[in-house]
Design a protein that fits this description.
Strand content: 15-25%
Structural class: alpha/beta
Distance between the termini: 26 Å
Helix content: 25-40%
Order of helices and strands: HEHHHEEEEHHEHHHEEHEHEEHEHEHH
Length: about 475
């Protein structure tokens, strides 16, 4: 893998030199990249007839468990309400339970924990923890709006929540979006000074929009709610108030400057803070609409995959440090511990009438996370996909949007070179997620791999080399 990355790094350097020569000799127009919509790069456009899509029909939902016979009063007295409820659920409609489970696991309703310790084991099942992005009460209302034919109470909806889906009480968000966080910090400062009654951006969307999951309402195109505004209480504009803000700052290191992200504490007049909040709302609404639009597009893509298509959702995981069952003091407290890079991928393929996902992780001693490394890891992922389905002609790639890894000019050069390695590929689309909202299923794969390797260390085995990682992580979940 290291030699492959060096090879691709050399090819990228040659490409960069050619582009620089073109810039010096000719004036050309640089088209701006649109990260909100998927970028399609056709590799080969043969004249083939359109494949007829199979019409998928959903099975009708069975009747609810209202026809169950009542238990005798003596049996009812012996058993508690919880046991009776659980037995009714078992005898009831399984399709409703699966529908509620899928609703809780949807990425727009909950997020998966990326930490290797964020897992739970129950009934012999190990699951990565998920944390809700909204209150259960609001999610219950959303579920009833999306499924008007299903009548389910709030209590039943709460009881059917999977055991690995948690309320975000003690979880510390370490990959928060800067746009959402700064809006929350401004609202929090106004709330502390009793200027507004809302607490965060979710409450703000609930006040300003009819439905915060509707693109027209969030985009301020709805005729009913487009003129709604935030209500402010009376305040004294003579005293400054304190608020926090995440910003990028430049720091000098020897002869060059680097950009760092810091949390600043500022003092400002209440009126100026209100104007700053109002000025940030249009950009915030566009950011939120892009998130909703991308989620709906990706969900539709997963459901409508053809047999000759695949979707690769991939991301770099945090580097894994070597660990030994017994470590000397100089290694344990020193800085000579080796690392390997982990690139996690979830491949979605069409098998029969169902969309099946395959999870894989490529490991490399080279800890680079740039374009040559992406090229090498992507090649291994596509090899796995073509071993499963040799007739794949279209590949859809879904990643987050850091410029140092996936969103740069070298990635587009990589797409044009995939035909040399995989001749059957005719079309490749690369979809970039909105900035700060790239968390998904690949983060759970990295957590499982690291947790499995740590378990091998606890059992007395050493994970101290590149070739020990795949052997120790061969356990299936």
């Amino acid at each position: 893998m290291t030699l492959l990355i060096k090879k691709y790094q050399k090819r990228c350097r040659i490409l960069t030199k050619k582009l620089n020569k073109i810039k010096e000799n000719q004036a050309y127009t640089v088209w701006e990249e649109n990260i909100a919509l998927p970028t399609q790069v056709p590799i080969h456009t043969p004249s083939s007839p359109d494949a007829a899509k199979e019409a998928t029909t959903e099975q009708g939902i069975l009747k609810s468990s209202g026809n169950l016979k009542r238990r005798p009063s003596l049996e009812f007295r012996k058993k508690c309400f919880k046991d009776r409820f659980q037995q009714k659920i078992k005898q009831g409609n399984d399709s409703i339970q699966e529908l509620i489970k899928s609703f809780y696991e949807d990425d727009i309703n909950s997020r998966i924990g990326a930490g290797k310790k964020q897992y739970v084991k129950k009934f012999g099942i190990i699951k990565q923890k998920r944390y809700l992005l909204d209150s259960v009460k609001n999610l219950h209302k959303k579920f009833l709006e999306e499924n008007p034919n299903i009548l389910i109470s709030y209590v039943t909806f709460t009881r059917l929540r999977p055991f690995w889906v948690y309320l975000p009480r003690d979880d510390r968000e370490t990959c928060a979006c800067m746009a959402h966080t700064n809006i929350d910090l401004m609202i929090l400062a106004l709330k502390k000074n009793k200027i507004v009654d809302i607490r965060n951006y979710r409450d703000m969307l609930h006040v300003l929009c009819c439905d915060k999951y509707n693109k027209k309402c969030v985009g301020r195109d709805c005729k009913t709610c487009k003129n709604r505004v935030i209500s402010y209480n009376e305040f004294n504009n003579t005293d400054e108030i304190e608020y926090h803000e995440w910003c990028r700052d430049k720091k000098k290191l020897s002869s060059k400057e680097i950009n760092i992200v810091k949390k600043f504490t500022r003092k400002i007049m209440p009126k100026d803070l209100i104007l700053k909040l109002e000025h940030s709302l249009p950009k915030f609404f566009i950011h939120t609409v892009n998130i909703l639009n991308q989620h709906q597009a990706v969900t539709l893509l997963k459901e409508s995959l053809n047999h000759d298509e695949t979707l690769l959702h991939m991301d770099f995981s945090e580097n894994y440090s070597y660990k030994f069952a017994e470590e000397v003091q100089s290694l344990h407290f020193g800085g000579s511990r080796g690392q390997v890079s982990l690139h996690t991928v979830v491949a979605y393929l069409k098998e029969g009438r169902e969309t099946v996902n395959h999870c894989l992780c490529t490991v490399s001693e080279c800890t680079r996370h740039d374009s040559p490394a992406v090229w090498a890891h992507l090649q291994k992922a596509l090899q796995f996909v073509f071993e499963k389905c040799p007739y794949i002609t279209t590949a859809h790639i879904l990643t987050d949007s850091p410029t140092s890894q996936y969103r740069n000019k070298q990635i587009f050069y990589i797409l044009t070179q995939l035909r040399d390695t995989f001749p059957s590929l005719k079309l490749v689309t690369w979809n970039y997620q909105e900035s700060g909202h790239g968390k998904g299923a690949p983060d759970g794969i990295g957590a499982v791999v690291k947790r499995t390797a740590d378990h091998q260390v606890k059992c007395g085995r050493d994970v101290g080399g590149f070739f020990n990682i795949p052997c120790s992580c061969s356990r299936k979940y």
